[in-house]
Structures are given as C-alpha cells and as structure tokens.
Amino acid sequence: MSQKTIHSTIHVDTLNSGYVNSHILFDVDFDAKEKEITVVVGPNGSGKSTLLKSIFGLCTVYSGEISYNGEKITGLAPHKVARKKIAYLPQMNNVFSNLTIKENLIMASYTLNSKLVSQRIPEIFETFPILKEFEKSKSNTLSGGERQMLAMGMALIRQPNVMLFDEPTASLSPKLANEVLSKIKQLRDDFGITIILVEQNVKRALALGDFVYLFANGKGVFKGKPDELLNHPELGKLYLGIS
Ligand SMILES: Nc1ncnc2c1ncn2[C@@H]1O[C@H](COP(=O)(O)OP(=O)(O)OP(=O)(O)O)[C@@H](O)[C@H]1O
Ligand SMILES: [Mg+2]
Fold first, then answer.
1. 241 Cβ closer than 6 Å to some ligand 1 atom
2. Is 201 close to ligand 1, i.e. is its CB under 6 Å away?
C-alpha cells in the first residue's frame, strides 16, 4: 500500500485538560514528529490515556493548544479529528465482536466508496496475513493479539497519517506483544505513519521508539531519546521499575 504523508506532526502546547471538572493534565508540552514513533510511558493514572483522548477530542480542554500540521484542532469533535486522518485505537472494545473479520473491515471503511474498499481489503490482508486466514470468522473467536491486528487493520484501511495507540499490548503474552509491536514498527517504516504509542512494556517500546515522554501526576517529567531515559540515574528506577 503506498501512502503519501507530508507533515503529520502533532504539537501540544501548555495543555490543561481533563474530564469536565476533573483537571488531569497540567501544562503539558508534547510533540510527535512526522514518521516517528513517540512513546509515552508513566505510572498508572499519570495521564497517558488522557493525553491521547485530549488529542482525539474526547476530553475537556481548559487551556492550551493542540495542532496538527500547524492547524489548530483543539476541542474538535472526534469524528472531525478522524476525518483529518488521525486514528485512535483505544485499549478496549476496539472491534465489533459479533461481526466477521471482513465485516469489521467493511464497517471501518463505511466512509469510503465500495471500489476503494474492495481494493484496500486485499492490501490489509497483505499486511496482516492472519486476518485473511480468519476472514469469515467472527472476531470474538480471535486471540487478543489477532484482535489487536484487526483493530490496526480497521484503522489502516482509512489510510491514516497519524495513529494513537493506547497500550496495544496490554494483557498479551510476550510473544504476541512482540508481534504487535513489530507491526507498529512496520506502520512507521513501510507506510510512513506518525505514531504515538502509550505502552506499559517500557523496555520493548523504547527499543522501537524514536523519542519518549515520561508522565507522572499529569505532567511531563522527562522527554528525550529512549537511551537517555533508560540510562537516566533516577527516573527509570523511580517511575518505571527499570533497574
Ligand atoms: N472519565 C473520567 N472521568 C474522571 N476522571 C478520569 C476519567 N478517566 C480517567 N480519569 C482520571 O484521570 C487520571 C489519569 O488517568 P489516565 O487514564 O489518563 O491515566 P493513565 O496514565 O492512562 O493510566 P493507566 O496506565 O492506568 O492506563 C486518573 O486519576 C483517572 O482516575
Ligand atoms: Mg491508560
């Protein structure tokens, strides 16, 4: 599948956001560069998911700005953000479990014309051969890793420029987690997609990330290259259990 991406950079400037009256993120600055994987790590409740949800228009923004390729998207409704070719993959409930794999892909591409859909489904199967194998099976028969591949396929069929992943490897075995992460790497390397990856598997995520942010208590407490975080004398130990 070929894909043209020009800038696809997400820029977050002094963001204060949360859920109606619950202020969760405080003065967050964040950048995801074009065609890079930007990893977000941090303890439970530190605000990682809230950052993704804020970008995708699912949170209340009190102040600050979010932009995409220089265009302000702060406070835009989720369907409008999606139309700008930003895909959000929440951790849970990301496929229709009573539909087959193929029906899920068709469902995900309802905004595309049918000619495009019939052209792109084989491309998705090429990227995720496992989906082709189970094409006619209900998606509730898939393993956790396969379901995650389906969710990725459903996002990819709309040819996004940016993909926001919220813990795509949660509750997967180490082997499946590695498969999912190597697919994410492929999305960057082969399709030039800009990726924001929230991950609990810190070491694995840092191995493929280009840049990393560490969150704690709703604030960014570190940003830099993965190596810098891994070799930091205190932060890894303090927040991430890296010794
Ligand atoms: N819908 C909501 N309404 C109010 N508060 C919420 C809501 N969702 C999350 N929060 C709160 O926001 C804070 C940050 O949550 P968030 O889900 O962003 O953390 P996280 O870093 O993704 O954690 P985890 O690693 O457990 O997924 C938590 O204190 C949480 O209780
Ligand atoms: Mg979360």
1. no
2. no
Kindly report the three-state secondary structure assignment for every residue of the chain: CCCCCCCCCEEEEEEEEEECCEEEEEEEEEEECCCCEEEEECCCCCCHHHHHHHHCCCCEEEEEEEEECCEECCCCCHHHHHHCCEEEECCCCCCCCCCEHHHHHHHHCCCCCHHHHHHHHHHHHHHCHHHHHCCCCEHHHCCHHHHHHHHHHHHHCCCCCEEEEECCCCCCCHHHHHHHHHHHHHHHHHHCCEEEEECCCHHHHHHHCCEEEEEECCEEEEEECHHHHHCCCCHHHHHHCCC
Q: What is the pTM of this model?
A: 0.93
Instruction: Give the start-to-end residue ranges of the domains of the chain.
Output: 1-85+160-243, 96-158
Per-residue pLDDT at 15: 98
Q: Is the CB of 54 under 6 A from ligand 1?
A: no
- State the CATH class of domain 1-85+160-243: alpha beta
Q: Which tens digits make up the pLDDT trace of 67-87?
A: 999 999 999 999 999 999 999
The environment of the single-atom ion ligand 2, i.e. residues with CB closer than 5 A, is 49
